[in-house]
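Practice problem: predict the structure.
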Amino acid sequence: MPKKIVIIGAGPTGLGAAYRLQELGYRNWIIYEKNPYVGGLSASFKDDLGFIWDQGGHVIHSHYKYFDRLMDKLLGNDYLEHLRQAWIRIYQRWIPYPFQNNIRHLPEDEMFECLMGLIKAQEGKKKSRNFKEWILNSFGQGIARHFLLPYNFKTWAHPLESMDMNWIAERVSVIDLKRILDNILSQKDDVEWGPNNQFRFPRRGGTGDLFNRFTKFIKGRLFLNRELIEVKTDEKSLRFRDGEQSHYDVLINTAPLDQLIKMLKTKNAVVAASHKLKHNSVLVAGLGFKKPSPSSKCWIYFPEERAPFYRATYFSNYSPRNVPGKGHYSLMCETAYSKHKRPDRKNILSRTIRGLIDTGIIPDQERSAIISRYLIDIDYAYPIPTLGRDKALAVIQSYLEKQNIYSRGRFGAWKYEIGNMDHCVMQGVELIDRLLLGQKEKTFR
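Answer:
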């Protein structure tokens, strides 16, 4: 009899694995999800007034032909395409993203400071021991002080000196000094960098609509409202909060890795390694306005303290069906927190509105146009690429695979750099190809 494969979590990775199992004609598998819905962090929610809200500013872009074909199959023509319009709001000015390529828009003194710091950094090329040093050594004091250091602390909510820099790759635009000088002298905006400069978005239902469309392929094998609380590796048994028990031959975990370790009776070294895994949390404040959108922008970054949030998304610009109808628009604002950066949950909606006014995004009188206030508190938002992460993961993943447990996904693998939606779906697909076809995983490393 074929081995029983059990998948924990119906987010992008679990759904990717489940889809691939049915695509290959494998029959002995099942998927459990603790929530009453699928999609994980990519699920969407509709409020009482008809506004759709995502859990942060998700966009669909791809590094994989398989993922592209899968999106075509799932969405058909039911999506919209956008050219990214991303900006930084600083000094009551608009700076096109990425900041370092467009410093010509800064006030003259700040632009000169950034340029001189950049030239000095490029001449020195010091070795970096952590993310903070990498920023300073790569971009210089000016760009670091005005944008990269404050913005990254707001985003990660962890000391940057505790973070590694080997995750960066395509996540941060590195320096091309000649290009930046040409942008300044030619008075030219430089906005095309990055993998998400073009993206797709579902026409209706938010990002979650994409993952809801997986369910027709896994009917009869998907069980919702099943929260795993115990794994016994010696018996290969699972126990859920509702009392149900199950068994597995192969277990695919997509839940947070540190939570999985708590469910296992395992070695002290593995438990100790799991304590080195750090994450942040994010409060997503959704504001629905009864007035037409004042901007065509996609999203905005905020490095300054006058705004509690690090990013705001004009979510209604992704699809007009994200709002109740014409004459409405919506903003989603994300505020990260951790033990290093305490949240203010009670006042976050009012502080968000105040931040939008103070940064010039909305006028004070527009408060009266806000008809919807929606708050999502994401406990596990971003896995932090800390200095000790990779050594800890090596210990944990090695132990798990010896028990026929494979942990993948944004928090299953605990790697931010392969945590986009396409990465996560493909982690599930490629793991199945490894288990059933003997192929090498390319995304998970």
